[in-house]
Amino acid sequence: MANFPTWTSTSTGSDVAATFSSRIQGKTVLIVGVSPNSLGEATAAAYAAHSPALLILASRSLSNAKAVAESISTHCKVECVPVDLSDYASVRDAASQIRSLTSHIDILINNAAVVKDEHTLSPTAQHELQLATTFLGPFLLTNLIMPLLLNSAQTNASESGIPTRIVNVTSAGHVLSPVRFSDPHFHRPLSDLPESEQPAAHLPASLLPGEGKTYAPFLAYGQSKTANILFSIALNKRLLEKGTRIASLAVHPGSVQTNLSRSLGPESRAMVEGTTKATGWMDMGQGSVGMLVAGLDPRLVEEVEAGKPKLSDGGKGVYLNGWRVHTEGLAKHAADEDAAERLWALAGRETGVKCDGLGSVVDIIDSQGQNEEVVGKESGLVSTVKEIKI
Q1: Which of 130, 323, 338, 354 could form a disulfide with 293 if both were Cys (CB 3.0 to 4.6 A apart)?
Q2: Which domain holds residue 373?
Q3: What is the predicted pLDDT for the residue at 265?
Q4: Interatomic CA distance for residues 169 and 294, integer angstroms
Q5: Is 85 inside a domain boundary?
Q6: pLDDT of 3 above 80
Q7: pLDDT in tens, 369-389
Q8: Are strands 324-325 and 319-321 parallel, antiparallel or unpaired?
Q9: Is 8 within a domain?
Q10: Predicted pLDDT at 369
Q11: 342, 170, 292, 243 alpha-carbon torsion, rounded to 10°
C-alpha cells in the first residue's frame, strides 16, 4: 500500500482530500447536513476541489444548501436536496429526489445534528428532536438509498480499500448517555430508568434534568451521538460481514465552534465553552479532517476488516476520534453489539419500517393502511407489511 502521510493536529480536510484525490475523482458524494460556516460546508469544499462526478448537498434549509453550492459549484456539478430529518415524510421525499439524481452513491456523510435547550418533539412523529434529527432520520434515509450505495460497491469492486463508505458523525459527548431504550424521547424521570440506561456516573447536576423535569439537553445530545456509533456497528455487521464492500464508520470531529449551539441558552453555551478551555477550538478545516479520513483513507477499512469478527470489541475499526481509530474514551455503552441490534430494531419501529441494511425497506402498515411505500425486496413477512419495488 502507498506510504500515506500521518495526520497531525495542524492537518486540514483539504490536505486529506489532496492526498486521496484519485479516490474522489469521478465519484458521487452525498453530504447530509450542510450550511454556511459548518463542518458540512468545509467537507463539501474539500471534496469539490477534486472533481467528483456529482456532489449532493442535503439540508433542512434549501437556501443554506444553495449558498454552500454557489461557493463550490465552479469545481464540480452540485445538486441540492431539501430534507427535514425529523419529518419522515420529508426524508422519503428526499430519498426519492436523490434516487432521481443518480444511480449510485460512493460516499454518504450523515452530518446533520441539532441541539435544543428545551424538550422539543418533532411535529409529526412526536419524537425527541435531537434523536430524530441526528439518528432516526439518517437511519431511514440511509436505508432508503442503500441500493445506490450497493450499486457503487459493485462498480468499485476492483478498487482497494473499500471506497464505498457511510460516515456517521458522532461526538465525544456520547459518553454522557447510553440509548434510553425504554424512554428514548425523555418523558420519564431518571429514577424510572433501568441501570443500563442511566447517564454517566458523577455528572454535575447541571447536566441532569432539573427538579420535576425529565429532559436534559446534554443527555439527549449524548444519546443521539451514542446512537450514531451503534448505527455504524450495526451497519458493518450487515454490510461488511455479508461481503458487500461497504464500510461504515463513526467519527468525532473534535471541538469545533459551529452554529450548532445556536439554540442553546446562555448557561448551556457557557458550559460548552468551558469544556474547550484546555484544548481550544479547532477551525473548520481541522475539524473536517476526521470526516474526510473516514470517507477516504483506505487504511481505516483495513482496521474495520481486521476487527470484523468482534466489531463491538472497543469499537475497533468503527469509531474515529479525529483521524485516529480510537478506543480510549469510547464508552462501553457505545461499543455494545447487542445494544446496536436493539437500536436497529428501535429505529425501525420509530420510523415505521423493517429493513435489513442490504437495500430492503418494508413499511409497517398501520391500522388505517397508511405508509405503504417500500424500497427493495423483502420476502416471508406477515400480512402487516406491503411491498412496492422501485
Answers
A1: 323
A2: 360-390
A3: 59
A4: 10
A5: yes
A6: no
A7: 444 444 443 322 222 333 323
A8: antiparallel
A9: no
A10: 42
A11: -10
Q: Are residues 334 and 384 in the same domain?
A: no
In whole angstroms, what is the distance from residue 134 CA to residue 222 CA? 11
CB 91 within 8 A of CB 137: yes
Amino acid type, 346: L
Q: Give the count of domains, the chain.
A: 2
Cell numbers at residue 150, please? Answer: 450497493
Give yes or no for a contact between 230 and 334, defined as CB atoms under 8 angstroms apart: yes
Contact 82, 94 (CB under 8 A): yes
Residue 31 CA neighbour count, 13 Å, CB half = 29
Give bridge partners of residue 139 from the DSSP assignment: none
Least confident of 97-101, 292-296, 356-360, 365-369: 365-369
- Grid cell listed for 314: 472497543
For 268-303, what is each residue's pLDDT tens digit? 555 555 555 555 668 888 999 999 999 999 888 766
In terms of domains, do 80 and 151 share one? yes
- Per residue, the 3-state secondary structure of the chain, as one string, reads CCCCCCCCCCCCHHHHHHHCHHHCCCCEEEEECCCCCCHHHHHHHHHHCCCCCEEEEEECCHHHHHHHHHHHCCCCCEEEEECCCCCHHHHHHHHHHHHHHCCCCCEEEECCCCCCCCCCECCCCCCEHHHHHHHHHHHHHHHHCHHHHHHHHHHCCCCCCCCCEEEEECCHHHHHCCCCCCCCCCCCCHHHCCHHHCCCCCCCHHHCCCCCCCCCHHHHHHHHHHHHHHHHHHHHHHHHHHCCCCEEEEEECCCECCHHHHHCCHHHHHHHHHHCCCCCCECHHHHCHHHHHHHHCHHHHHHHHHCHHHCCCCCCCCEEECCEECCCCCCHHHCCHHHHHHHHHHHHHHHCEEECCCCCEEEECCCCCCCCCCECCCCCCCCCEECCCC
CB-CB neighbours of 115 under 10 Å: 22
pLDDT of residue 303: 62
Instruction: Give the amino acid at 298.
Output: P
Same domain for 140 and 222?
yes
Does some domain include residue 2? no
Q: Which amino acid is at 302?
A: E
Query: What pLDDT, on a 0 to 100 scale, did the predictor assign at position 183?
Result: 98
Residue 155 has pLDDT above 80, yes or no: yes
Torsional class of 136: left (φ above 0), alpha (ψ -120 to 50), beta (otherwise) = alpha
Amino acid at 162: I
